[in-house]
Design a protein that fits this description.
The chain is 61% helix and 5% strand. The protein is built from 9 helices and 2 strands; from the N terminus they run H-E-E-H-H-H-H-H-H-H-H. The chain has helices at 4-16, 37-49, 58-75, 85-93, 97-108, 112-130, 135-141, 147-158, 162-167, and strands spanning 21-25, 28-31. A hairpin with a 2-residue loop joins strand 1 and strand 2. It is globular, with a radius of gyration of 18 Å.
Length: 179
Amino acid sequence: MVCDRCIMVVRQQLDDLGMEYDSVQLGLVQLAGEPDEDRLQALRQRLEANGFQLLDDKKARVAERIKNVIVSHIHKDADEINLKLSAVLEDKLQLDYRYLTTLFSSVEGMTIERFAILQRIEKVKELLMYDEESLSEIALKMGYSSVQHLSQQFKKVTGMTPSQFRELKDNRRKPLDKV
């Protein structure tokens, strides 16, 4: 789950199945009790029909939590963007960063840094589409050391410069769950 609408869909599926839960957060559902296998299977099918996956594997669950912390850090906690991502992850997940990087790479097939870059570029695309801030303001807001650094990274990921992207009239953004 990567957004508030995802949480809403998961809650609806749990409610429809009559499954009691203590909380539903990004990437994590805390059930009130232990569900029987039939209800768990029904939940799995409903979630998959909505584009979600029920994660039984501990490593996959931790990787999903890492993604959720990164998405939240980049897309929601703008005032904390300049904090080191490694420190944020260690603080939020209470696990050693080296362990997290190894686990994430083995599960996702990319590094935490790569995933974070892709998320940052998606946020930059959003800001460029709004056309309310200059490239310098966006670079500062997103924690880049310079406009040049932002432009180089943007071009490496998208194949175009931020200015070229801004001139496009159609939407080139990706949904966060597709990044």
